[in-house]
Amino acid sequence: MARMPEGAVENYLLTQCRANGFLCLKFVSPARGGVPDRIVVAPRGTVFVEVKRPGGQLRKLQQLTHAKLRRHGAEVHVVHDKPSVDAFIAHILESPSH
Questions:
Q1: Domain residues for 16?
Q2: At 98, is the pLDDT very low, low, confident or very high (cuts 50, 70, 90)?
């Protein structure tokens, strides 16, 4: 199977979120690097999603930022291909609402 560029993974995430009625917002924080690419707002809650190309690794700043978000109670996911996006969507659909 051909490797997907990161943009294609992000577009697939956006398409799948929309198909399930979730908001999938681009997250940019000029004052803080390493933040996840997307914020997904779903009935069960709001989660952060980092998009990587297949085989792509988190940078050190991303690792530190994701860990800080988790310490503060946030849920952070990393997706890198269609199956991981599908698994993320299934997780959000199966999780109980807050």
A1: 6-93
A2: low
